[in-house]
UniProtKB/TrEMBL annotation:
Residues 58-295 form the Peptidase S1 domain. Keywords: Signal. GO terms for biological process: proteolysis. SUPFAM superfamilies: Trypsin-like serine proteases. Residues 1-20 form the signal peptide. This is Peptidase S1 domain-containing protein. PROSITE patterns: TRYPSIN_DOM. PANTHER family: EG:BACR7A4.3 PROTEIN-RELATED (PTHR24260:SF147), PTHR24260. It comes from the Eukaryota.
């Protein structure tokens, strides 16, 4: 039922689906996320654990450098006693990861078993942190994963700030994640980075795949998406749950953190067509729902036994 929020608290790992957008459109959205961003930035700089600065002078193609995107994580799925990393996500607090609902629910979808942070190249797991999953909260397009044990923040594992404005950023975007297993003969082990330009909301209409009835997803109607693309990039090069972000600079114009602007969450006409922008779910639309669950007011906190 629309407008009704179903919240179930159990004593073990579960998937909690929230119906409707009643939690999304509350007053003063983004204030808590912005304050937490300042806190994380201050703490990270104080402890001298800023992620490795993005160095565009180094020519690596689409490969991300070690420690450049320390907020990125991989979601692990176990099939036939084999562990596969099939989706991405990104750390937004000491114990929460933001990802796509595609990665945790849906027809034929498996739930991830654990989260792996601190890895840029799958062949180098020196700095990895494995975290078991406590709870999953999911809306139609985005999901929150709460881990059982807090992440240990260091130069290779840090949170990302959340971009709370409903306007597209002025600067270029960076799309990061891992290559899906069904692309190419060999699985690329390195994290991918694609530099994209933000596109107008109007052009997003052309990149979304209509439903069977020829209707565009309601995401475009409610301004839930943000589009970005490049002349030589294909949105299908990166897995679901991957992040669209921009560089964040503090008052001294020193980069230390990133702003997560969007999350890759559904099929797009941009798949295989480099001339079309890719569509991402706009994080700012869901910012209040995220705040209420990740940083709830003291009188609204849910007790997880």
């Amino acid at each position: 039922m629309k407008g009704v929020t179903l919240l179930i608290v159990v004593l073990c790992f579960h998937l909690n689906f929230v119906n409707g957008d009643s939690q999304v459109l509350e007053s003063n959205p983004g204030a808590v996320a912005n304050e937490m961003c300042k806190k994380y930035t201050k703490d990270i700089k104080k402890n001298n654990i800023c992620p490795v600065p993005l160095d565009t002078s180094i020519i690596r193609g689409n490969v991300a450098g070690k420690g450049e995107f320390a907020h990125m994580v991989q979601l692990a799925y176990i099939k036939n006693n084999e562990t596969k990393y099939l989706c991405s996500g990104f750390i937004i607090s000491k114990n929460y990861v933001l990802t796509s609902t595609q990665c945790v629910s849906g027809e034929g979808a498996d739930q991830p078993e654990f989260v792996r942070a601190g890895v840029t190249d799958e062949k180098d797991v020196t700095n990895e942190q494995i975290r078991s999953i406590h709870t999953i909260l999911a809306l139609l397009y985005i999901a929150l994963i709460r881990v059982k044990e807090d992440f240990n923040f260091n130069q290779f594992v840090t949170p990302v700030c959340l971009y709370t404005s409903n306007e597209n950023p002025a600067g270029p975007g960076i799309h990061t994640g891992w290559r899906p297993t069904d692309i190419g003969e060999d699985k690329q082990t390195n994290m991918i980075q694609l530099f994209l330009n933000f596109d107008s909301n109007e052009n997003c209409n052309n990149t979304l795949v209509p439903t069977e009835k020829g209707v565009l997803p309601e995401a475009i109607v409610k301004n839930k998406i943000v589009c970005a693309g490049g002349k030589t990039t294909d949105g299908c090069q990166v897995d679901s749950g991957s992040a669209l972000q921009i560089d964040r600079k503090d008052s001294n114009e020193e980069p230390c953190m990133y702003y997560a602007v969007g999350v890759s969450s559904f099929e797009s006409r941009a798949c295989g067509k480099k001339e079309l922008p890719a569509a991402f779910i706009r994080i700012s639309y869901y910012i209040k729902w995220i705040e209420n669950n990740v940083w709830p007011p003291a009188n609204k906190r849910i007790r997880f036994f």
